[in-house]
Each structure stands twice: as structure tokens, then as C-alpha cells.
Design goal:
Blueprint: H1 2-22, H2 39-42, H3 48-52, H4 56-69, E1 73-80, H5 85-98, E2 104-111, H6 114-123, E3 131-135, H7 139-144, H8 154-160, H9 163-168, E4 170-171, E5 174-175, E6 178-184, E7 186-191, H10 203-212, E8 216-218, H11 224-233, E9 238-241, E10 248-250, H12 255-271, E11 276-277, H13 282-289, E12 295-301, H14 305-312, E13 316-319, E14 323-326, E15 329-332, E16 335-344, H15 351-361, H16 364-374, H17 381-384, H18 387-390, H19 393-401, E17 405-407, H20 413-426, H21 435-450
Parallel strand pairs: 1-2, 1-3, 8-11, 8-12, 16-17
Antiparallel strand pairs: 3-16, 4-5, 6-16, 7-12, 7-13, 9-10, 14-15
Length: 452
């Protein structure tokens, strides 16, 4: 068949590149799986791409190709977070069953939290899993380390997922990972017994409601992933990295506006000392587990949703981050919004089967599966439009928050510790918080980000 002939030719090219790598060419990623861009060959566009990607014809085409070129017996490994082990094991079993007439694949699923994947993979790709989940801010470094094989099914991925999730996976002209979720961020959760829907819309009203109920409002101010919202709300934007791959690039921001906005956060938290509490996102769930409850509202991560629902049930409300009043103007709080991806190890011994497995795990069926079982918000367009997703309050809130966010891509390694320090400063109520002092802190933060 035409597709198989093309794939066979491309595989020969790939093998040639592999030989070049073995001869010691360390100047670039000589084993990148650019070869089988099959989306165009399948002739699928838009929503149809996700509907037929694994139909009988596709399975036969790829199953036979892999059997011919990678053999009948294949061993692959997956790294997935601890909370998702059972789900990934079931999905891996479905994948193996799907292709059983063409090849035998033994797939092991091991625990590896997404936040730790980058370091593990870069440290020794040969010992890393063939397929692994990771957060979007790790993409650039994984690409730079030649640890990722670029996506094979480019047309399918681009057609099936949101443009933002695909864009965040793109470096140069290539898509480097399969979008897995569209929800790797944080938003507001509140106890509806103490906070109303309207009160949840502004930070001032929210804190007042928490204080009136003698409850806490939790926000992880000392963590740069959350504290960056102070800067973003003030108009500063992170626009990727300079050509050196390290130096952070910013927009043409107004330092006075940024400083005034940061001061508004600091002043408000100082005013509500005793109500505001800077703790990790688990602080909200921990607070509502006590009897009587100690927390009425808090900023949580998408990863906290299941545990919060288990505790509060129908009493939990979800919303986008509130506004904050800065000099008489209500400004929408802007956060950092990321995605989770499934990457293929550039050094996998079975590169085609690994690509196929990643494509399946990031596909519509599996995204729906994880949305239902793990409360993970999908990046797949069809999955987002299902009633089970559209009627899920937490997913509605997190997807709405994505409209008020900066993408978690192209972030310099120097960003995190610098913004950690600023966040701790804002959350410490004993500070002076004069505009000159706050401006100096903001300028120092930005300088520390740029100064690598």
C-alpha cells in the first residue's frame, strides 16, 4: 500500500540518521522521529481525525508495518503519575489488545510524577521510559537535550486538540509532544456554605466573606507558579526565551503598573492578616476536612479537584480567579496556564510502536477516560464538547481560566527562584509595602530572572 511504502522509505532514512548518531555526530538530534507524518496520508481533518485514527484500516496499516519493521515481540514502558497508575495500565492493555493480531507488546507502567520527569529523562534518556507524561514548562529543555522524538501524527494532533495546546508543544517547525490535558493550572474553590457565587468574583469580597465566617483563604504565595499571577496581573508577560535558550524575554511592560498591582495584592493580604494564609494547594482540602472547617475558599490546582469533591460534595463551588481592585479599577487576575503532554523517548528501541502508543494515550478515547476517572480536563476538542465535561463545574472553571492566563512555556530556569522570593515578600504582612519598596522588590525580581 502507498502509505506503507512511504513509511518504509522514511524508516530507512531514520535508520541512516541513527547510524550517523552512532558514528559520533553530537551536534544535533540525529534520531528525531520526523519520518512518518501520517496525518495527511489518512486524509482526515477536523473532528474526523479523532474519530477514525484507530479504526480497523488504521490498525491494520500500522500493525502490519510495525510487525514488518520492529518485529512481533515488543517491550515498552510508560511513566505516569501515581494517581493515574490504574487508568494507564487499563489503557495500555486496551492498546495491546487492539494490535494483538499483528504484534505482541508487553507494556509496563511505572510511577513518575510529571514534575520530576525532565530531570530523570535528561539525566539518562537510555534509562527513561519509552513514553512519559510531563508538564509543558519542561518541553524546551527536553527538546534542547535531544530527549524527545518529534510527533509522528502531526495532522491528527493539530486537528484534534485546541490550538493553544498544540502551539505550546511546538518548537520551531515541529510538534514535540502529544497533548494530554488542557487543565494544568489553578483556579478558585470555595465552600458554598460561607461564600456566594457573587462574592467569589472579587478578591476583596471573597476575603471579607472568609473573615466574616471566621475562616481562612488559602493561596500559595511563596510558590512562583502561583505568585507569578502578581506580575502577570500587572501587565508583565513572559514571551519565551532568547536565542541562547536561557534568557527570559518579556513584553514592553510598564514597571509602575506592575509595581502598583503587586502592592495591591500585598496591601490586601496585610489587611486580612489572619484570614489570608499562604500554604500549598492541599491547604484548602485539609482545612475543609476538619470539623469545624477552618477554610472557606482557596486557590487549588486541577490535581486537587477529586479530593476536594470527595470532602465537600455539593457544597464545593469552582470559579475562575477573582478580580482585584488596583487604583479603582477591577483587574482580572491572570495566572500561569500549562498543559500536560505525552512524550516519546528519542532513544526508544521501538520508536514506531512508542509513537503509536503515545498517539493512542493522548487520543480522544483516553482523554475522555481520564476526564471521567481522574477529573483531568481534556485538550481534545471533541472531548471538551461532551456533556460530561461541559456539565462538570470544575472543568468549566479551569477551561474558562485558560482565557485569562499566560502559557506555561518558554520559562527560564531563573524565573522560579526569583518569583518565589517576590511571592514570599508579598505574603509577609510585617513588611512595609510602600510603593517605592514594592517597586524595588519587583525590579530586583525581574533583574534576577534576566541575570542568569
Amino acid at each position: 500500500m502507498k502509505t506503507r511504502k512511504i513509511l518504509a522509505l522514511l524508516m530507512a532514512v531514520l535508520m541512516l540518521f541513527g547510524c550517523m548518531a552512532a558514528c559520533g555526530d553530537k551536534g544535533g538530534n540525529t534520531n528525531q522521529t520526523d519520518a512518518p507524518a501520517t496525518g495527511g496520508e489518512q486524509g482526515t481533518t477536523g473532528a474526523a481525525a479523532t474519530g477514525v485514527a484507530f479504526d480497523d484500516a488504521f490498525i491494520a496499516e500500522w500493525g502490519q508495518f510495525i510487525a514488518d519493521n520492529e518485529g512481533k515481540d515488543i517491550t515498552l514502558s510508560i511513566w505516569a503519575p501515581s494517581k493515574a497508575q490504574d487508568v494507564f495500565k487499563a489503557e495500555a492493555a486496551k492498546f495491546a489488545e487492539m494490535f494483538k493480531d499483528y504484534f505482541n507488546v508487553n507494556i509496563t507502567v511505572s510511577k513518575q510524577e510529571e514534575g520530576d520527569v525532565k530531570g530523570q529523562v535528561i539525566n539518562d534518556p537510555s534509562k527513561a521510559a519509552d513514553v512519559f507524561s510531563f508538564a509543558s514548562d519542561q518541553l524546551q529543555e527536553l527538546v534542547d537535550a535531544t530527549a524527545l522524538a518529534s510527533v509522528v501524527f502531526t495532522d491528527d494532533v493539530a486537528a484534534a486538540n485546541t490550538a493553544a495546546s498544540v502551539s505550546a508543544a511546538t518548537v520551531g517547525e515541529k510538534i514535540w509532544a502529544y497533548p494530554e490535558t488542557g487543565d494544568n493550572s489553578y483556579f478558585l474553590a470555595y465552600d458554598k456554605r460561607f461564600v456566594t457565587e457573587d462574592q467569589a468574583k472579587s478578591l476583596e469580597a471573597l476575603l471579607a466573606a472568609c473573615k466574616a465566617a471566621d475562616k481562612k483563604f488559602t493561596f500559595d504565595s511563596g510558590n512562583s507558579y502561583f505568585a507569578c499571577s502578581y506580575l502577570y496581573t500587572g501587565g508583565l508577560q513572559t514571551l519565551g526565551l532568547a536565542e541562547d535558550g536561557i534568557t527570559q524575554v518579556f513584553n514592553d511592560y510598564n514597571i509602575d503598573e506592575v509595581a502598583t498591582t503587586v502592592k495591591a495584592f500585598a496591601d490586601l493580604f496585610k489587611e486580612y492578616k489572619g484570614t489570608f494564609e499562604s500554604v500549598t494547594t492541599t491547604g484548602f482540602a485539609d482545612g475543609v476536612k476538619t470539623d469545624p472547617t477552618t477554610v472557606a475558599a482557596g486557590v487549588i490546582g486541577s490535581w486537587d479537584v477529586a479530593s476536594v469533591k470527595q470532602v465537600l460534595g455539593d457544597n464545593v463551588g469552582f470559579a475562575i480567579l477573582p478580580t482585584i481592585n488596583v487604583g479603582g479599577t477591577d483587574k482580572q487576575i491572570i495566572n500561569m496556564f500549562g498543559y500536560k503532554y505525552i512524550g516519546v523517548n528519542n532513544y526508544s528501541k521501538f520508536p514506531y510502536t512508542a509513537q503509536l502508543l503515545a498517539h493512542y494515550l493522548a487520543g480522544e478515547e483516553c482523554q475522555i477516560d481520564r476526564a471521567q476517572q481522574l477529573e483531568w480536563g481534556p485538550s481534545n476538542i471533541n472531548a471538551q464538547n461532551l456533556d460530561t465535561v461541559k456539565n462538570n463545574p470544575s472543568m468549566v472553571a479551569i477551561l474558562a481560566q485558560s482565557e485569562n492566563s499566560m502559557p506555561q512555556v518558554g520559562i527560564s530556569p531563573t524565573f522560579w527562584s526569583a518569583v518565589d522570593s517576590l511571592g514570599k515578600y508579598v505574603g509577609t504582612s510585617s513588611n512595609n509595602f510602600s510603593i517605592d519598596e514594592v517597586k524595588a522588590e519587583v525590579e530586583a525580581c525581574i533583574a534576577n530572572i534576566i541575570d542568569e
